[in-house]
Every structure is written in C-alpha cells, then in structure tokens.
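Hi R.,

Here's the chain you asked about this morning:
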Amino acid sequence: MTDEIHLSRVESALEDRAYPADREALAESFAGTTVLFADGEGDLGDLLADVDQETFESAADAVAALQNVLPIEAVGEPGQSDGDA
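And the predicted structure, written out as tokens:
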C-alpha cells in the first residue's frame, strides 16, 4: 500500500524523523510516498533524492530544500501570475 500526502502536509510527515538526517536515508524512508500537488503528483523519496543538500538539520530545513526541486505543477497552474503585470 502506498501512502499519499498533500504537499501542505509534507513538513508534518518529515517531523516524524530524527534530525540531523542524511538525505539518502530520508529519501529511502519516503520512497513510495506519493505527494499530491495542485496539479499532479510525485514520489517524495525521489524528490528528496534530487535535493543537492546532503544533510538536513530539521524538517523545515528539508522542506526548504524540497522547494527547489518541486515541479511547477506542485504549486499552481503553469504560466499563471500572482499579480497584475
């Protein structure tokens, strides 16, 4: 059975781990966990494996690093602006 979590709940899921945490170990522990995006989904283990940072000091640190590898579909509709031009 594969776990599914919404993107907004990733940090709380990561908080269940001990820190500092190794990127590789964290990625392995979340392999098979599907993150549901605004438009689509991704494997949390794969996303963590794509992060350049080797260790995380906290769940918040891991989430901040994840922000750099999330696809554009994760946070909204591609090509949409947050404000007027």
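Residues 59-66 form the longest helix (8 residues).

Let me know if you need anything else.
M.
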